[in-house]
Specification:
Helices cover 21% and strands 28% of the residues. It has helices at residues 40-50, 65-76, 119-123, 143-153, 184-189, 195-202, 247-260, 265-280; strands at 3-7, 11-18, 32-38, 54-61, 79-80, 84-86, 91-100, 106-113, 132-136, 159-163, 179-182, 210-214, 220-223, 231-233, 299-300, 310-312, 321-326, 329-334, 351-353, 358-360, 367-369, 375-377, 390-392, 397-400. β4, α2 (65-76) and β5 (79-80) form a beta-alpha-beta unit. α1 (40-50) crosses α7 and α7 (247-260) runs antiparallel to α8 (265-280). The longest helix has 16 residues, at 265-280.
C-alpha cells in the first residue's frame, strides 16, 4: 500500500440517466438521478483507494450545501479531505451529466464559480509524507509553483501530471513531472492525429519523462523515459459498453498503481487499459473491482408481440433496439428513423398496424414494413431501418449477436 496525494478539482456530479441523447429543444424524462463525487483527480483517488492505497486530496470547496455533499462523499470513498481549502465566496463546482443508456456515453456541462487551491495553501502541506503525488494539469496561476516545490522538497517520490486540455503555459511544466499523461482532447487540440504523433513530437524535449497518451477505443500510446520509441497499446475489445464516465480517470489510477508496484511502463499501460475496459462495462465506480456480470438478454420471446413494438436499451449499439414478432420469428431494428436520425418513439409510442404490417415513426409519420424495415410511406420513402442481429436461446431469451 502506498500513500498517494492528489491535487486538483473536486466536483459534485449530478448524473441523469436517459434512454437516448435528446435532440436540441426536446423534452425527455430521465430514468434516474444520482449525486456523486466527481472530478478527475477525485475519481482516480477513489479507484486507487479500492486498489488498496491510502488516498488524500488537495482541493478547494465552497461554503454551500454542495460542499457538504462533497465532503460526505469523499469520506464515504475513504479519501482524506483534511487538506481542503474552503472559500466562503463562490459556488462549489458542479457537473451536470447526461448518461446515455443506449451507448454508455456521457455528455457533461460543467459550472465553476470558485477559486482553485492557492500556492500558499499547498505550500503548507507536508508533501514529503506521501509516496506519490498526482497533479491535474489545470490551475495555471499556481500549478508551476506547486510543481517547483514538489521537485525541490521530494527526494524519491514520483510526480505524475494529467494533461486533459490545452491551457496557456502548461507545456512549460511538463519536465517537472516524472510521468505525463495526455488525453486525446489535448492532442487533437494541438493538431495531432493520434497519440504517436504527439509523443514523437514531445520525445526530444522530454527524454527523461514517461509519456502516455490515451485515445479511448483506439487504445493508448506510450514512450518510456530514456527511450525514443513510441509504442501502441490497443484497447481491450468490449462486448457491452455500459458507462464510459471516469474511464480515463480509472486508466490513470491503474497506471499509477502498476508503477507503484514496480511494473515497467509497458506493463503499467497494459494493466491500466485492462482496468479502464473493465470500468466501461460497469455503471459508476462503486465496487469497481467486482467481476463483470454476464450479458443480460434484451428481452424474452414470450414478451414480444405482433401488435406492438418492444423497445429495449442496447449499450453495445448506437441506439436502442425495436423488437416485434413477425410470424414465427422476431424482427429487430435499431430505434433510429433514417429521416432525421431520431428514435421512432421520440414524440410518442410507435403505432403498429397489424393488417398492413407496418410501424409508424411518431415524429414525422414514416411507415416501415415490419418484415424488412423498408419505409413505404413518409419523408424517408424507400430508405430502411437498420436491422440488428440477434439470437434466441431455448428458454426464449434474446441476445445481441
Amino acid at each position: 500500500m502506498a500513500k498517494i496525494l492528489g491535487i486538483g478539482n473536486c466536483v459534485l456530479d449530478i448524473v441523469l440517466d436517459t434512454e437516448h441523447y435528446p435532440q436540441e429543444d426536446a423534452e425527455i424524462r430521465a430514468s434516474a438521478r444520482t449525486f456523486k463525487v466527481g472530478g478527475n483527480v477525485a475519481n482516480s483517488l477513489y479507484v486507487l483507494s479500492q486498489l488498496g492505497h491510502e488516498a488524500s486530496l488537495v482541493t478547494s470547496i465552497g461554503g454551500d450545501n454542495e460542499a457538504r455533499q462533497l465532503k460526505q462523499g469523499l469520506q464515504a470513498r475513504q479519501i482524506d479531505a483534511t487538506h481542503t481549502q474552503r472559500f466562503l465566496q463562490g459556488a462549489t463546482p458542479t457537473s451536470y451529466i447526461l448518461r446515455n443508456r443506449e451507448t454508455g456515453s456521457r455528455t457533461i456541462t460543467h459550472y465553476r464559480d470558485l477559486p482553485e487551491v492557492s500556492f500558499d495553501f499547498f505550500a503548507k502541506v507536508e508533501i514529503e509524507n506521501w509516496d506519490w503525488l498526482h497533479f491535474e494539469g489545470r490551475n495555471m496561476p499556481h500549478l508551476p509553483g506547486m510543481l517547483n516545490i514538489a521537485r525541490t522538497f521530494l527526494t524519491h517520490q514520483p510526480i505524475s501530471l494529467e494533461v486533459e486540455k490545452p491551457r496557456d503555459g502548461i507545456e512549460a511544466v511538463f519536465e517537472q513531472a516524472n510521468l505525463v499523461i495526455f488525453s486525446h482532447h489535448y492532442a487533437q487540440a494541438k493538431g495531432y492525429e493520434d497519440g504517436a504523433a504527439l509523443l514523437t513530437a514531445l520525445a526530444p524535449s522530454l527524454a527523461q519523462q514517461h509519456l502516455v497518451c490515451t485515445w479511448g477505443s483506439q487504445g493508448a500510446w506510450y514512450k518510456a523515459a530514456g527511450e525514443t520509441q513510441v509504442v501502441h497499446q490497443p484497447a481491450n475489445p468490449i462486448d457491452q459498453v455500459v458507462d464510459t464516465l471516469a474511464a480515463g480517470d480509472t486508466f490513470n489510477a491503474g497506471l499509477i498503481d502498476a508503477m507503484i508496484g514496480q511494473a515497467s511502463l509497458a506493463e503499467a499501460v497494459k494493466k491500466a487499459s485492462d482496468l479502464a475496459a473493465h470500468k466501461c462495462q460497469k455503471a459508476g465506480l462503486d465496487d469497481l473491482l467486482a467481476p463483470i456480470e454476464s450479458p443480460k438478454p434484451l428481452a424474452n420471446r414470450h414478451a414480444i408481440s405482433q401488435a406492438k413494438v418492444t423497445i429495449v436499451p442496447a449499450p453495445k449499439l448506437a441506439h436502442s433496439v425495436i423488437l416485434i414478432a413477425d410470424g414465427d420469428g422476431i424482427k429487430a431494428y435499431e430505434n433510429n428513423c433514417p429521416h432525421q436520425d431520431v428514435p421512432l418513439n421520440e414524440a410518442y409510442k410507435v403505432d403498429v398496424n397489424p393488417f398492413e404490417k407496418t410501424m409508424k415513426c411518431s415524429v414525422h409519420d414514416a411507415f416501415f414494413k415490419i418484415e424488412n424495415g423498408e419505409c413505404v410511406d413518409g419523408p424517408c420513402l424507400n430508405e430502411s431501418l437498420k436491422p440488428v442481429a440477434i439470437r434466441e436461446e431455448e428458454n426464449g431469451d434474446i441476445y445481441l449477436v
